[in-house]
Amino acid sequence: MEKTKIEKRFQGKVAIVTASTQGIGFGIAERLGLEGASVVVSSRKQKNVDEAVEKLREKGIEVLGLACHVSNAQHRKNLIDKAVEKYGKIDVIVSNAAANPSVDSILETQESVLDKLWEINVKASILLLKDAAPHLTKGSSVVFISSIAGYHPQVGMAMYGVTKTALLGLTKALAAEMAPNTRVNCVAPGFVPTHFADFITKDKATRNRIEEQTLLNRLGTTNDMAAATAFLASDDASYITGETLVVAGGMPSRL
Ligand code: NAP
Question: Which family is it part of (predicted)?
Answer without folding.
Answer: Belongs to the short-chain dehydrogenases/reductases (SDR) family.
